Records
---
Amino acid sequence: MLMEKYFNSLGENLLSIIKLLLLIYNKLLKFLYIGVKEVFMEYVYFEGKIVPEDEAKISVKTNSLHYGTAIFEGIRAYYDKDTDKMYGLFFKEHYQRLFQNMKVLNMEIEESIDELIEITKELVRKNNIKSDIYIRPLVYFSDLKISPKLIGYTAKITIYTYPLGDYIDINNGIKAKVSSWRRLNDNSIPPRLKVAGAYVNSAFAKTEALLNGADEAIVLNEKGFVSEGSAENLFIVRNGKLITPPVSDDILEGITRNAVKTIAEDLGYEVEERHIARTELYVADEVFFCGTGAQISPVVEIDHVKIGDGKPGDITKKIQEVYFNAVRGKIPKYRHWIIEI
Ligand SMILES: Cc1ncc(COP(=O)(O)O)c(C=O)c1O
């Protein structure tokens, strides 16, 4: 009897101890989980606030999702190891272009350009990033209504960031293919706009290039002149002169394109904006793509034709060098291109 009582109370005590241990173990797991989640948490800007990514959700009924009427930007921030600092590149210019684009789509949002710059800086800081990143603001009609139109809807902006090294190769030179797809034109879907729907055209061209063993597409416009890549502007070099299609040749008015023009002119090269015929690509001394994502990417082969000696050209390399120093804050005269985050 006594023994039975003794064993019963021992059993109860053991059970309580196990329960207590399980509770501690559970709490510890929870604590660790939250801790780990905090460290790896990605924050995004959504509906006027910076929130954890998993809290930023839109409905499947969202109007712009169906009609491609979202306007977006692609911005970069670079990490400089020497100064241990993040530098935002052309923040103002990107948000200015976003606002120009929004104007064409009759979109208005609550945030101003200056506020968006501050929000973006805060977002990058909050995500605690120390690497080169891409920043993607997207403005969309958030109404849960059908009908492809640009009036009577409310526009909202969301912004997210993600680490991005080289979007396409910048060292060895890439292969390009002249696309069988023609570039959109200003009277259908204006290529001047970074509007989601226009990127169906880019997706067709890029996919065709990839399926044919090339790295990138070169797209001709309806007139048959060279316009640009799937997500980059294009320069050719002939006899020491840089040539790029004019803004009326169905291109996105690239911010990097402007930077390249400035660098080239500062290096003493002449830059001409004029139509480029397809075969000029093949006989050019050098060809390169440029863009926020692409940076400066030499093209060494087009449609199986070797460009120059089939290696990245000297002028391209010089421009690349200046560009990469400028984006990491190493060149005082281009310091105004970047902001410290
Ligand atoms: C179609 C297209 N052209 C050109 C560019 C290059 O523009 P930016 O230098 O402003 O990034 C991009 C990239 O955003 C693009 O999507």
---
Amino acid sequence: MLLSTHFDVVCTEDFLSDEYGPRDDPVGDVNRELSVLRQPVVGFKTFPEHLVYHQLSLVELARRLDVKWVIVLWRQSCLDMYVSLQIALRTKVWYSTEPKSQAEMVEVDGEEFLQYIDKMEERWKHVVKGWPPDIVPIFVKYDDLVQNTTSEMHRILHCMSLDASDCVFEAECCRQNPTPLSQKVSTWNRLSDHERSASLDIPSIVNEAIGRELDVQSEFVHLLPDREPPPPPSGWRYKVCEPYITSTSRENVLDAVDSGSVSSAGRWPNEMSRKLREIFDTAVAQPCSNGFAAIVLALRAACIGPGDDVIVPSFTMIAVPNAVRIVGARPVPVDNATRAYNPSIREIEAAATNKTKAVIVTHTYGVPTADMESIAVLCLQRRWFLVEDVSESACILTTTANGSRRLLGTFGDFACASMYANKLLQAGDGGFVLAKDAAHRYRLGSLVNHGFTRRPSYTWNRHQTLKSAAWLQHWRVVAWTQMILS
Ligand SMILES: Cc1ncc(COP(=O)(O)O)c(C=O)c1O
């Protein structure tokens, strides 16, 4: 209904319900019904149970109907959904403005309810199995849509490349029984906390299915861009610095601003570090200002400087050799392997000098450097540091010799990344450096923070003006000393 208020969209009822019994060609029927609609964007609503009823999967629908967008509307509280369903089945009323219908109550058997959730989970998994990976789902939480209708609608329409920035949306939500759950469930006191708060994480189920298809970890699936529409006659202009910002990212930025936790010592950089350590299973993850700084930090932590050679791909971004030069070392460029985007172990070995101290690989355009395990072994044997620059390949997997899949960035002593707006993991700008050896934690932190590593480095009580000024001065001196020593 809300979508249909946009003049380019017409969105209709459930064409695939089980109301009229089984059909010979359910998708063909839907196609015919959609083809009579006149708007540039047409759509229809369906439920997982109806797809199961017609023995359809989403991938079949998407392929035969040339579906461009799938909006996954879901409700956080399973009990709420279950109770609505029970009331509707009993009263045949889904939405009502009648005050008298607000008195409805249902009995919920906790065990039966949990079985229902299991069944629902199975149904979702079945329907989204083999999700067409070129279709990025638009997740909409029912509760968000009701509470923040305009911003949610803007987000949905933006994902569909439709402009609605001037529109204000209002949802008048007349559920059959708008009273709190505890008043709708006669057996409320007999339900356990687990039953009362049961939820199904539908986005995770969908992302897992897409992740399996794409061979990408499910937590990154929502970062993938939408399918590209056909280019206009004049061609596309790609804006390098226009990132895809998810609603979660937006909320987290607002949280940082609202809580005043915006510095490098704030909550979110720490949270980012924790998450990176978890993803890459590494000891140290140090956020920093950009990808260039990340390489400089890795080289400084490895004590590489004047008199040292560092092997770098000749086909990469200029920041890579520049970072080598700024620490005083000499970049030694190596060509790509034939028909490859990166050098192979052969080119790397051929470029080695007796001054080589490190090798940087960059997995250009997200293409893994071949045979990373052998390159890592070579570096270990020659006592070279291996630095993986994953700016263009963060969270991409490569296949190892035994056929298993492994994340790029987990082979080297260090992994660096730019988080500039066009990167795979982007923050507008920014970067991070990972280190396998926990011994690098202090040094990397100290380099990034100019030696301000010890507490209470960032605390200054204003009422102690004189003492604090002296205190601050003291920490500056300590910081400088630490920096000079390091
Ligand atoms: C492989 C590689 N390394 C380093 C950088 C530099 O990153 P930043 O611009 O964040 O300093 C880039 C940026 O394009 C890159 O592609």
---
Amino acid sequence: MTPDLMESGAQRTARAHGLPYPGGSTESGGRAADFGRHATPGEVDITHGRILYLEDVCVSFDGFKAINKLSLDIAPGELRCIIGPNGAGKTTMMDIITGKTRPDSGTVFFGSTIDLLRHKEAEIAQLGIGRKFQKPTVFEQLTVFENLELALKTDKGVKRSMLFKLDSAQSDRLAEIIETIHLADSVSRMAGNLSHGQKQWLEIGMLLMQDPKLLLLDEPVAGMTDEETARTAELFLTLKGKHSLMVVEHDMSFIRTISEIVTVLCDGSVLAQGTLDEVQADERVIEVYLGR
Ligand SMILES: Nc1ncnc2c1ncn2[C@@H]1O[C@H](COP(=O)(O)OP(=O)(O)OP(=O)(O)O)[C@@H](O)[C@H]1O
Ligand SMILES: [Mg+2]
């Protein structure tokens, strides 16, 4: 762990109890006290080679440790696959990263300087972390184009939304994204008439409109046809590099197509990590997951 990511026990305790953040008496003085406070979209410090960093994260639900000393990090532009048995804590990990669930302890950083545990869910989205839940959530009564346009209007009031017009850069971006998500022929179609796979791509497109640095995708190909799954793999490979991706999936052939490093979660922590071949050959992984 780098010194920049460290936090004194006093600071951690203060945060946990909602007290003023002590900074002046620490070695790094006021600098530490300011970490994460002035973060704005587009500014993620990746000089340490990590876009996401979790260390010793724990969360319990009624005494049950859903996440147990979980540590992992993701490099900028990486496409990380996460696999593991039902109940391993994969979705809960995403809940923690996106601010939906607060961990009991541990460290969660976006880049080297943004302490995600100090931000609310909406702020985390604005900082550049987009999340795709398993079920598609598009506006069925609106067209593909309108759905994408709407993705830029979040956090504007009703009046401002009605007056909102895409500028030329945003129009270009929308056109590019429609191509990327394979919906160029469906711009004017009602989202409700799209196939399940197309709805999933549209929702990914809506996330892309906000130009996220990091995309979290929970079981994105569940319920897709084989052809849709293959196209989704292509899509993710296109997004890799421009964005960092964390993809949770149970579909091993999909994982084989897209994966570089695969992290296996079990009982709320990392059981194994490596290429898919490496983790598939790991006896512990076979025991708890693949061999079932
Ligand atoms: N809000 C909650 N309250 C109580 N228990 C919870 C809560 N959220 C998750 N859990 C429990 O935490 C554990 C981890 O759940 P999680 O949904 O993160 O697993 P998962 O790895 O995503 O599983 P799956 O592959 O089935 O989606 C499970 O035992 C689940 O029942
Ligand atoms: Mg899950």
---
Amino acid sequence: MWNAMRTFEAGDFSSWLREGNFIIEPFATYYVLLGFHAIGMAVVVGICFMLSSRILGFQLVVSMAAARHMLRLAWWGFWLNLASGVLLILAQPRREFMTELFWVKMAVIVWAVLAMRSMGRGLAAVRPVADARGGVVELAPWSLRVTALMVDLGWLLAIVSGRLVGYTQPPPPL
Ligand code: HEM
């Protein structure tokens, strides 16, 4: 497996991801991919933080239906993150897999994704109740509030560990 990865890294595709240009100079492919990775991160993490603030009781004017709609956009951010992340791995798979924090990051991403799915199910289950002034309000139960905090914590740890991967990587193996 290790040898197969070494051969792959020496090939044209992996070399282009690592050292080539994205169409024209000076747009290095690796940095363009990091750019897409950052955009995906901003979309998924930004929307999840916004939704969790709604779940925790801020911006009560936002309906749960609107929140669920936004969650769909958050998933698009995640898919962009996944696609760019896989290409970043293919640029130097051995170096990534040798970095301990890379595996920590993968574990917290699994955690955040599971919590995000559960947050989506929780949003769908919230029912409107009458408030003191005769209106209706959609209040999230405590279980959903805890899930929203788990989503936020998962993404925060993914950001921190993601950046630390770059600082703690060993030199490229021979
Ligand atoms: C979904 C699967 C993902 C994969 C396979 C993946 C993979 C990667 C890889 C290979 C790198 C380059 C690491 C390096 O050598 O410096 C990277 C960078 C990074 N990733 Fe991810 N990633 C994923 C999702 C995420 C998510 C969800 C977040 C945050 C919410 C995130 C945050 C970061 C950060 C902060 C960096 C460093 C960016 C920089 O150096 O400018 N990643 N990721």
